[in-house]
Each structure stands twice: as structure tokens, then as C-alpha cells.
């Protein structure tokens, strides 16, 4: 069962359902999916993945990404770390279903999360980390409005090569609301 917290044109964000652990286990053990993620060195069993999903579901600001048309989970997105005092949040995204890669679902899910982060949580800065070899992810983040903020050179060694860990961020004033602003305007018009 999924619940429409933030709704776009292609997908929506829902609280994470830990019962999806079997499909997530397939995704996280697929090296093509995992190579861009921090967990690429881990062997995750169904029970370990269920515990991870249960932990993510307990944390307030992690969401499942659900295909709007098919009503099926395709990945997740959220804030693994938020500094409420300073208004800074770290964002992470994972599209496990490879059928959805390169089709705009990641960009839309990120924009929905940014809308939530900037307009509901009142964050000032949202940042992420990505490895320099993950060109599709970098392009996705740029389309969503992120800019490179810095890098740690040679931070990742994979297949005998060294790659940079890139930090990208976006500020509240750089983001144009797509969902929350529309909701507020509808409420405003209803009361006139």
C-alpha cells in the first residue's frame, strides 16, 4: 500500500513500505545498480534489507518513489541527514528498477523532495555526494538544479582507477516550487 505525499506527473513520493524488501534485495545486489551507491561492497540478504527499510521508514523524511501510472515502487529518495538548526539537509536517491533509468523519474522525484525540503522543512541548503564516474546521476542532479560545490579528489578506487567524490548542492532561493506553491495557491483561491 502506498500513500501520495508529494505527487508529480510521472511519480509520487510515499512513506517507505518495508514489505518491499524482496524487490529491494534484488536491486541492491545487482552490481549495475549498486556500483554508483555507497553499498556496492555489501552483500545484502532479504532480512538485512528488511531491517534497512524498517529503519528508513522510521526516519521521518525518507520516501519510496512510486510510478504514478502503475502504482509500483521504483526506488527511494530522502534526507538521510538534516541539520535543522542550520537548515542544511543531505539528499540521497536510488532508482533500483532499471526500466526507469534515463526517463525523467529521478529528476521528478528529486524536484518533489526539494519542494518538500525547501517549502515544508524550510531548509536553506540541500546537498548530495556522487562519484565522478556516475555521469548519468550527475546529469540528473544538474537537471534538477544542483551545482558542483566541491570534490574530494581520488576518494573512490574502483576497477583499478581513482575517482573523485563530488559534492553538489542547491539553495532555497535557486529552487522554483512546483507542487507546494500550487497547493497553497489553490487553498488561497478556495477561501476568497
UniProtKB/TrEMBL annotation:
Xref: PANTHER family: GNAT-FAMILY ACETYLTRANSFERASE (PTHR43415:SF3), SPERMIDINE N(1)-ACETYLTRANSFERASE (PTHR43415)
What's a Pfam family this protein contains?
Acetyltransf_3
UniProtKB keywords: Transferase
Query: PROSITE patterns annotated for this entry?
Result: GNAT
The protein's superkingdom reads Bacteria
Which part of the chain is the N-acetyltransferase domain? Answer: 21-173
This chain belongs to which protein, by name?
GNAT family N-acetyltransferase
> Which Gene3D superfamilies has this protein been placed in?
3.40.630.30
Membrane-spanning ranges: none
GO terms (molecular function) for this protein are: acyltransferase activity, transferring groups other than amino-acyl groups
Transferase among keywords: yes
Query: Is this entry keyworded Transferase?
Result: yes
What InterPro entries does the database record attribute to this sequence? Acyl_CoA_acyltransferase (IPR016181), GNAT_dom (IPR000182)
Amino acid at each position: 500500500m502506498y500513500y501520495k505525499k508529494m505527487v508529480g506527473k510521472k511519480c509520487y513520493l510515499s512513506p517507505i513500505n518495508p514489505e518491499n524488501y524482496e524487490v529491494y534485495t534484488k536491486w541492491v545486489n545487482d552490481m549495475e545498480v549498486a556500483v554508483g551507491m555507497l553499498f556496492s561492497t555489501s552483500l545484502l540478504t532479504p532480512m538485512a534489507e528488511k531491517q534497512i527499510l524498517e529503519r528508513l521508514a522510521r526516519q521521518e523524511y525518507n520516501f519510496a518513489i512510486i510510478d504514478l501510472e502503475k502504482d509500483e515502487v521504483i526506488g527511494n529518495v530522502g534526507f538521510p541527514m538534516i541539520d535543522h538548526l542550520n537548515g542544511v539537509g543531505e539528499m540521497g536517491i536510488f532508482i533500483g528498477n532499471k526500466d526507469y533509468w534515463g526517463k525523467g523519474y529521478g529528476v521528478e522525484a528529486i524536484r518533489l523532495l526539494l519542494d518538500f525540503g525547501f517549502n515544508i522543512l524550510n531548509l536553506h541548503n540541500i546537498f548530495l555526494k556522487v562519484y565522478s564516474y556516475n555521469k548519468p546521476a550527475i546529469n540528473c542532479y544538474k537537471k534538477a538544479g544542483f551545482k558542483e560545490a566541491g570534490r574530494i579528489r581520488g576518494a573512490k578506487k574502483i576497477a583499478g582507477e581513482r575517482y573523485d567524490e563530488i559534492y553538489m548542492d542547491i539553495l532555497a532561493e535557486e529552487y522554483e516550487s512546483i507542487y507546494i506553491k500550487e497547493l497553497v495557491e489553490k487553498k488561497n483561491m478556495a477561501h476568497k
